[in-house]
């Protein structure tokens, strides 16, 4: 199963599909293996079975996700395993997709195939945190990336923020973007930084660039009154762009005509701000976004944390002090009692050239 999981990791993302790996083992020897690359391409099991050919008969298949039971863009894998004469299927976790959810395993059992699992469930779940959360909760798995100084500041009072960290840390961010279905920001970041938010493989070494392939996540701007200038860099660069806005705004909307930008309305909260939960639900349910990367300023990032929509924070720390007038990492409402703190669990600490990167999970999730 470890080998199947490693195969699944051959791609950074197969979004909106899950990453899946499969090996077929006969008499202790791997006779076929495969992984799912992207929607429309063959599933992991189909590739492994093709490689195994006749040797699949009587063999054991290890799959990092329950084999599918439905006719999707490709035919059901449970049937393919049965047809190939596989004697046993070992799986890591059940596929929460309502079209599958246990039916793949049931179909195999009905056909007399031995079914064993879940094994290495935690490792396999880590492959597809976004897909699993979208299927179970109708929300994407959100990773909030920020860069700060060693005294916890994210930009100067003027908004100037280039650069807090070095090149190597910024290349790391490219990989994170490429593993996401969408990169989300707020209109204020567009107005102050005019970022491209695209994946730039030319900033990476050969091995990293190969892993990324031609993946470009959708770029999403939360812009309740459509203030993004039509000549913003993000609109000009290749790849999909989506504005989530609060009202029809026909006049502002007309300014984007002929551009690649797609515009969707989502609910507003009292006070005129976008309903962030509705915005995330829209990305998961209407755009099939599994993993979302939030690259925004302290206000939107703080509001997303406050709304309980952030699953993980990735904080790059540049070795410098920016002083007390500089902006804090998050704007969060004041907390008076220690017992009301927002708890995190640190899951990773890395040094990247002269910078440091801390990864932490929000504990209330
Ligand atoms: C598997 N093996 O390698 C993957 C599975 O549209 P399709 O045909 O690609 O089906 C996509 C769904 O199939 C996806 O939502 C998930 O439930 C399952 N993915 N299943 O048996 C695979 N990638
Ligand atoms: Zn399948």
Termini Cα gap: 28 Å
β-sheet strand percentage = 15-25%
Bound molecules: ligand AOF, zinc ion
CATH class of the largest domain: Alpha Beta
Q: Please identify, by name, the CATH architecture of the largest domain.
A: 3-Layer(aba) Sandwich
Portion in helices: 25-40%
Q: Give the low-confidence spans.
A: none
Radius of gyration: 22 Å
Mean pLDDT: 94
Order of helices and strands: HEEHEHEHEHHEEHEHHEHEHEHEHEEEE
Count of spatially separate domains: 2
Which topology of the largest domain does CATH recognise?
Dihydrofolate Reductase, subunit A
CATH superfamily of the largest domain: Dihydrofolate Reductase, subunit A
Question: What structural class is derived from the secondary structure elements?
Answer: alpha/beta
* Sheet with most strands: strand arrangement: 11-10-9-8-12-6-13-16-15
Main sheet overview:
9 strands, mixed
The best one-word shape is: globular
Quick structural overview:
With 365 residues, the protein is of the alpha/beta class.
Description:
The chain has 365 residues and is an alpha/beta fold. The chain folds into two domains: 1-127, Cytidine Deaminase, domain 2; 138-362, 3-Layer(aba) Sandwich (Dihydrofolate Reductase, subunit A), CATH 3.40.430. The protein is 28% helix and 24% strand. The protein contains 13 helices and 16 strands. It has helices at residues 2-8, 44-52, 77-83, 103-110, 121-127, 129-137, 167-178, 187-193, 206-212, 233-236, 250-254, 276-287, 298-306, and strands spanning 21-26, 29-35, 60-63, 88-91, 114-116, 141-149, 153-155, 182-186, 218-222, 241-245, 261-265, 291-294, 312-318, 327-328, 344-352, 355-362. The strands form three sheets. A nine-stranded mixed sheet has the order 11-10-9-8-12-6-13-16-15, with helices on both faces. Helix 10 (233-236) links the parallel strand 9 and strand 10. Helix 3 runs parallel beside helix 4. The longest helix is centred in the middle third of the chain and has 12 residues, at 167-178. The radius of gyration is 22 Å and the shape is globular. Zinc ion (ZN) is lined by residues 43, 45, 67-68, 77.
